[in-house]
Design goal:
Blueprint (H helix, E strand, L loop, with lengths): L2 H24 L12 H10 L10 H6 L4 H4 L23 E2 H6 L15 E2 L9 E2 L10 E2 L6 H13 L1
Antiparallel strand pairs: 1-4, 2-3
Helix pairs in contact: 1-2
Length: about 160
């Protein structure tokens, strides 16, 4: 998960926790039971949560690579060859969970890495793939600003070939 997504998620949790605390006070709760966590408790919980990664893969490798050999120069779903020397950093392409991108208005529902032209599907059974344009491991439920449908990609290349 990119830094942007982690920061955004933490912000939303903090705002949500503060908002719920204010609402609970407004409706005149009796102060007992079901206390709303403080912003500090929510932040601490976020810090304790670690991104699920393949076994034996460090956070640095997960975010920036290298990816396993079968992905290093593999072809994407749209037959684009991955060049390990020409990859964008996740931070530079607003890499995040697709659900968060939709909530933020950055993506449309149904747009995720799993149906992106640049995605390289899981080849080793760990649930993660790679991208022809972005470094590190990629979950099919992620999204970035480079997202392109396979159909759009094919149409662009048909136009290029007819010129």
């Amino acid at each position: 998960m990119g830094l942007i997504a982690n920061t955004r998620r933490r912000f939303l949790r903090l705002v949500g926790a503060a908002g719920l605390g204010g609402i609970a006070g407004c409706v005149g709760g009796d102060g007992g039971g079901g206390a709303t966590p403080t912003a500090t408790e929510v932040a601490d919980e976020e810090d304790d949560h670690e991104e699920e990664r393949p076994e034996g893969v460090s956070e640095e490798e997960f975010e920036h690579g290298p990816v396993p050999e079968p992905y290093r120069t593999a072809l994407s779903q749209a037959e684009e060859r991955r060049d390990p020397d020409q990859l964008a950093r996740k931070e530079d392409v607003s890499f995040q969970e697709a659900e968060a991108a939709v909530e933020a208005g950055s993506a449309e529902p149904g747009e995720d890495c799993g149906n992106c032209a640049e995605y390289i599907p899981d080849k080793n059974g760990d649930g993660f793939g790679a991208c022809a344009k972005v470094e590190g491991y990629v979950d099919p439920a992620d999204w970035c600003v480079l997202w392109e449908s396979i159909e759009e990609h094919e149409a662009e290349h048909e136009d290029d070939e007819s010129d």
